[in-house]
Request: fold
Amino acid sequence: MPEAKTLYRSRISPYVQKLAQNLGGEIASRLMRQFTPSPEEEVATPGFIRDPLHEEDPDIQPIPGILHKYPNKILYLTTDECPVFCRYCTRKRITLAAHKQEPSLEKVVDYLQKHREVQEVIFSGGDPFMLKDEKLWQISSTLASLSHIQFFRYHTRIVTTLPSRFTPSLWELLENLTKLQLRSITLVSHINLAQEITGEAKEIFRRLKQLGFRLLNQAVLLAGVNDRAEILRELMLALDEAGVTPYYLHQLDPVEGSSHFLVPVEKGLRLFDELRRTLPTYLLPRYVQDSKQGKINLAY
Reply:
């Protein structure tokens, strides 16, 4: 059977590769499983489809690159590029298939001017920090100039996979973001294992918090990666130590080529109950399943 990379492109940053080498053993295998192509990606599984959240449906994607599920917020898919390519990516039809999607900022502004109920812009992709500083600033400052936009949220993996991206120029940009007329700016990291939070990552989180960023994390429950209660507990404690609030624990989106990562909901609920018994309530993320209509709480 040919390797799955014939279907989907792959990228593992040198930083992650070096981290795995230094870790060694089982935890290194769990780390690398997230990003390493596997022949299992070519196995067709009933229920696992190209666009599991129906993001390409016109009723929630009114213009290319914009998802509008909730009245008061939009998701802006700024780029298809990432510092690493997660093999379970919901948008692997775009990111891992090298499908170039470049939303028109002019059309985004026009859409937002017609939808003044929108208060929050969530920057995702891909990873918005893969944009050049000039482009990232142009997009951010332009949207912040709209009087009804009050909240920015940036979804990224860059802190733990490509920390060298935090150049003096980017730090200056981030500081300037905090001077825009916004109520708050949030950075949502995607971290699935405690070992991803290196000393370098902790320092970046410290500086972001010092600038006034709200720091949250979303993890995905993945077979062979973090599907044990002690691993999840260790992650939540490490996030807390780094000053990051556990936000979401996602049930796997049923995207094609990712069924080997599936943890059944029944097992997920057992794991979450174990977390509930061993962690303070404020360190429990919301265990959710995403859908076209939005997130469904699986545990309370």
User: Anything to note?
Assistant: The CA atoms of residues 118 and 261 lie 35 Å apart. Residues 265-278 form the longest helix (14 residues). The radius of gyration is 19 Å. The domain at 4-297 is CATH 3.20.20.70 (TIM Barrel).
